[in-house]
Amino acid sequence: MANASKMVCSTRLGDNLMTLFSGFNAYAVGMDLMPVIPSGTANQTAFIAVYGRGGRILGTTTISLASTLETFLGLDSKHLILGASVTIFNTPRYECIDNIQFGGFPKDLIFYQTETAFRNATGTLLLEDFSQGQVPDNMDNVCNEPIDSSTNQPGCFWAGDILPGISFQTENSLDPACPACMYVLGRNWGGYGNTTPMIYASTPDPDMLEVSFSGRRVNFVGMKLGVIAVIFVYGTDGTLLGSAVNNFPPVSPLDFWGVASRKPIGRITIYGAILDDIMFGARFPWPMFLPAINSTK
Question: Based on CB atoms within 10 Å of each CB, which residue in 56, 113, 141, 199 is the most buried?
Answer without folding.
Answer: 199
